[in-house]
Design a protein that fits this description.
The complex is a heteropentamer, with one copy of chain A (about 230 residues), two copies of chain B (about 230 residues) and two copies of chain C (about 230 residues). In chain A, about 40% of the residues lie in helices and about 25% in strands. Chain A has ten helices and ten strands. In chain B, helix 8 packs antiparallel against helix 11 and helix 10 packs antiparallel against helix 11. Chain C has about 230 residues and is an alpha/beta fold. Chain C has a six-stranded mixed sheet, sandwiched between helices. The chains are: A alpha/beta (about 230), B mainly alpha (about 230), C alpha/beta (about 230). At the A-D interface, helix 2, helix 3, strand 7 and helix 7 of A face helix 3 and helix 10 of D. The structure holds adenosine-5'-triphosphate (ATP) (2 copies) and magnesium ion (2 copies). The site of one magnesium ion has 4 residues of chain C, from helix 1.
């Protein structure tokens, strides 16, 4: 029915995808409609027959879940971008020698570790530093990265473990420390076209998203290039 | 989209109104019936129905949303049947209305039930002695006397429908121009620090909307009271 | 014409009645709390006795043996309760018209007899006690009933108004075949209207008197019942 | 955490009850006062107050949550003051109760207001002629007669408090054992594909809870009616 | 002892009264809708006339010139409205006690005089009309008022009950200094109780009569007022 391409994307990619959409629309004239919501909603909606053409998520589990249900073809799943996991603090905070202290001395915000990818990575990172057990009681879990970020920006917590991209958009905070990539699973955003046959207009947009222009925009937003093989 | 000049904003406002009004139009008659039944005699059957009506309030909206998805989704029990005859709730504004209506339902029923319960039984008896059938008694006596309760239910329900978020985004997703109501738009904008000012505009708009609605209702209630005092 | 046989209880109070009356006005006379209103409610189908048989003219309203029990609205009644019960949301005019069949006559007659011209467009809560009672009486009469049940309909009416209504009821009695059951504490009213008087005490009909007998019976009785009621 | 044997589950249930009850205990007296005021005379001031009360219903929960964060957060206007005297709402169950109470408030107020409005003014007059002061008239006449409305308000409010999600997670976040109520737990579980079965357990639990609550309320309402009919 | 001067309107109806009465029973007599209840409501402070002065014994209840307007609860009244208004959520006992000061006496006397022993623990909705009215009367008396306002208090009472209450009111009249304002349509009641009778028509007090004058005045009047009210 709709001639526009309907994209299901995670709320955490709102800004960059809106920019990409605007750019692509004026270039190609094709219209793109993006529905931003929690990945778990979007995946289940696909299962209920949602007319989405593209499904983007930071959570491989949901991708596979969708694949199991033949909502998407396993082989069509491609990495779209990568990200970094950082410790963010409010701008006025001076350089802080004792990173570990942040997680044991006061409340810090992170996403819910059992269900939200960002939270899962954060837990891995802390476990890697052998801090998780000590830090856990100080952790404030948010349902998504943005609430986590706002809580930090308002100073409800002294620090937050978020994606590098998030730290970049929120002007009131800066990233203090980047967790070494090997201290947690690779952070990857996955993209997949839905359905059996992929219409031309969709492939076109996918190509654009994987193209250099898009890459530049991703980069300027703080995303890293996708690791070429999945995790 | 932060300026009121932006047509997108007005699209969103209109959509929200369309959704909320549709929800009320469908839910109200049902709510009146249920309210009347619940005001009647009986205990267990009543308590059960009552609990059922309250469920959307007790469950996290997400759950109600998923339930709707399972029932009314294209592959859902009911949804698939409706699909045959060309009625689709999924990912369309009608779906948003359905979600809003169901979430608002308990709020509409309660005050109406209360209004029926507090009616003087002697008026019903009087009407019967005057030869009025059940139907006439309901439409000429019980219903008009329940007017304040109906208004109260409508106000709560409409406000809820305007503000509904969880069930809606879960059931019909967040598709601009199709299912993105005020609440959903505000949520989306709040996802990025850039969106704050635009979000504020929308928040102010929905506050204005609700104030308008409440004022209208207070006015209706007032004029009704005045009518009785003529 | 009118037959009322019943046995039943409300709470701890038990009522037994056996009334046989012809056309015209049947008065029920008895102390407060004797069961007068209850009997009227039974005839109206608003209270169901354990055992009972009620017949008006040809039609049987209640027969607990034959399990006949006409619902109130089918009994073609005109009831005036002890305290006037008007529909608060309807004007006096609408209240009067509530029970009327389309092609109703006698509106003007009733309105002028009850002197309701001035209040016809008012809402009930702005009526005086007597006005309200007159509206209730008018409404009952206009619903063209097959039987009139009047529970102290003239209390609250001044002599002048009473002097209008009583002759009207007399005419109803003499010119129509509508039986009238009349509850009253006023000896003079009863003497003027009643063809037959049933006295009731503590829920049981104690005697059936002609107006003549009633007139004689009263004077001494007052004293004795006075003592009786004292303890 | 999918089995009922798991103590974590019962911790969550208890926390939810604690939060909802606390919310009701604090909100009810306020709601009664506001309901009484709204049932009184006046138009514009009333309409304004009424609109204010309805706001949490109209705005997306996220917004209310952020508003609470701004007001009652550690750095918030009120929050910082309360922090001085050692009262902290952030990240504690009391905060969850605050959010629940505010979200439920409009639902509690409306039925109570309705009950006050539908009272026969002559009873108040009668009480006055018997020398009863305003206070006595309120506590001995108006309040007991408003009982059905108070129950109705409590039921709606309690149900809402149990189901409250959006404002709570935004304001006090989702801290297991501290602020993770049933709704939040269910939501968390549903976020991962593997959580469904566990979520179902919790959903069933909250359904049972609400049924219990509703039954209790119906019973209260009934016994009250019976009392009047002694 | 009792002074009532007032001028005011309800809706389209205007009331003027000028009443001066001593101790004892002051009767107000007039056709339905004349304004009797309205005057009682004014004395009770439930209706405020545009201009008026109301004094009972020493204390001024209302003086629109001096802007004195005692609130109803401060007026120490005992009011019986035309139709009995009982608190539906309180038992008969609690209704009777509602207006009582702690150290109240006379409970037994009132209960037995009004013959309320059997119904004392019942809820109002299970009372007969007359029973309810007796409760209302008892409640008013027990609140030990400085003035009694009785609006047709004995309608619905049978001769026996009336034969109990009237003497009691006579005693109140003779043994206490509590003024009683008494609205009634019953010539005999008025003759038995009243020290002074004010007749009122269409909202204005038309004459002030002694019982003797009243007795004479009535008989012819009936006829004339009857015609008068007819049109
Ligand atoms: N809102 C109103 N508009 C016009 N007239 C009104 C209004 N309210 C009351 N009235 C009139 O005021 C008059 C006085 O009423 P009131 O109750 O004092 O009469 P009353 O003498 O007590 O009569 P009754 O013996 O029937 O009780 C009545 O004629 C009534 O119609
Ligand atoms: N639930 C109840 N339990 C016990 N007795 C009751 C109950 N309901 C009513 N009664 C009694 O039933 C009796 C009959 O009431 P009814 O109204 O018929 O009296 P009545 O003859 O109309 O008296 P009145 O002349 O005062 O109106 C009264 O004595 C009343 O107390
Ligand atoms: Mg009776
Ligand atoms: Mg009157």
């Amino acid at each position: 029915a709709r001639d526009a391409v309907l994209v299901f994307a995670p709320a955490s990619m709102t800004d960059v995808l809106n920019d990409l959409r605007d750019l692509y629309q004026q270039k190609s004239g094709n219209s793109i409609v993006i529905s931003f919501a929690g990945t778990q909603h979007l995946a289940r909606q696909l299962d209920a027959g949602a007319p989405a053409d593209l499904f983007i998520t930071a959570d491989r589990d949901w991708m596979d879940w969708a694949a199991e249900r033949d909502l998407i073809k396993q082989q069509r799943i491609v990495p779209l971008a990568g990200n970094r996991l950082v410790v963010a603090v409010r701008n006025e905070v001076e350089n802080w020698a004792d990173i570990d202290g942040l997680f044991t001395q006061d409340y810090f915000a992170m996403a819910e570790p059992d269900s939200v990818p960002a939270g899962r990575y954060a837990r891995q990172a802390l476990q890697h530093r052998g801090l998780w057990q000590k830090a856990k009681p100080r952790a404030v879990f948010g349902d998504n990265v943005r609430t986590t970020l706002r809580r930090l920006a308002r100073g409800e917590v002294t620090s937050a473990i978020v994606y590098g991209t998030d730290a970049a958009i929120e002007s009131r905070v800066r990233s203090l420390f980047v967790f070494p990539p090997d201290s947690h699973d690779a952070i990857t955003y996955w993209l997949a076209a839905t359905g059996d046959a992929v219409p031309e207009k969709v492939t076109a947009f996918i190509q654009f998203l994987n193209g250099p222009e898009a890459g530049a925009i991703f980069a300027s937003a703080g995303f890293t290039p996708p690791p070429q093989k999945g995790d | 989209m932060s300026s009121l000049a932006d047509p997108a904003i007005w699209g969103i406002v209109l959509l929200s109104l369309q959704v909320s009004c549709m929800a009320m139009i469908v839910a109200l008659p049902l709510a009146i019936i249920v309210g009347k039944v619940l005001a009647g005699p009986g205990f267990f059957g009543k308590a059960f129905l009552s609990a059922l009506v309250h469920l959307p309030l007790v469950l996290p909206p997400v759950v109600t949303g998923y339930a709707l998805l399972v029932l009314f989704g294209r592959r859902g029990w009911i949804g698939s049947m409706l699909d045959q005859i060309g009625i689709g709730f999924t990912f369309s504004w009608t779906g948003a209305a359905l979600a809003a209506g169901i979430m608002a339902f308990p709020l509409i029923v309660r005050p109406i039930r209360l209004a029926f319960e507090s009616q003087d039984a002697r008026l019903n008896e009087m009407a019967a002695t005057l030869g009025a059938s059940r139907a006439k008694r309901f439409f000429k006596v019980a219903l008009p006397l329940a007017w304040p309760g109906i208004i109260a239910g409508l106000v709560l329900g409409f406000a809820k429908a305007l503000g509904e978020f969880g069930a809606t985004i879960t059931f019909v997703s967040n598709i601009p121009g199709e299912t993105q109501t005020l609440s959903l738009a505000i949520y989306t904008l709040l996802q990025s620090p850039r969106g704050d000012s635009a979000a504020l505009t929308l928040i102010v708009l929905s506050v204005i909307l609700s104030f308008a609605a409440i004022l209208a209702s207070e006015w209706m209630a007032n004029s009704n009271r005045r009518r009785l005092e003529r | 014409m009118l037959t009322v046989k019943l046995e039943g209880t409300i709470g701890t109070f038990s009522v037994t009645a056996d009334i046989e009356a012809g056309v015209g006005v049947t008065a029920i006379y008895g102390p407060s709390g004797a069961g007068k209103s209850t009997i009227l409610r039974a005839i109206a189908g608003l209270w169901e006795p354990e055992r009972g048989y009620i017949q008006v003219g040809e039609n049987v309203l209640l027969d607990t043996n034959a399990e006949i029990n006409l619902s109130t609205e089918k009994r073609r009644l005109g009831v005036v309760f002890q305290e006037p019960i008007l529909f608060p949301h309807l004007s006096v005019r609408a209240n009067l018209a509530f029970g009327m069949k389309k092609h109703e006559t006698g509106w003007d007659g009733v309105v002028s007899m009850l002197d309701l011209g001035d209040v016809i467009d008012r809402m009930p809560r702005h009526l005086s006690g007597g006005e309200a009672q007159r509206v209730a009486l008018g409404r009952a009469i206009l619903s063209d009933p097959q039987i009139l049940l009047l529970d102290e309909p003239l209390t609250g009416l001044d002599d002048a108004r009473r002097a209008h209504v009583l002759p009207y009821l007399e005419r109803l009695r003499d010119e129509t075949t509508i039986p009238i059951v009349y509850v009253s504490h006023h000896r003079d009213e009863i003497l003027q209207l009643a063809d037959l008087i049933f006295t009731i005490e503590q829920g049981t009909v104690t005697s059936e008197l002609t107006p003549g007998e009633f007139d004689k019976a009263m004077r001494p009785n007052v004293v004795t019942r006075q003592d009786g009621a004292g303890k």
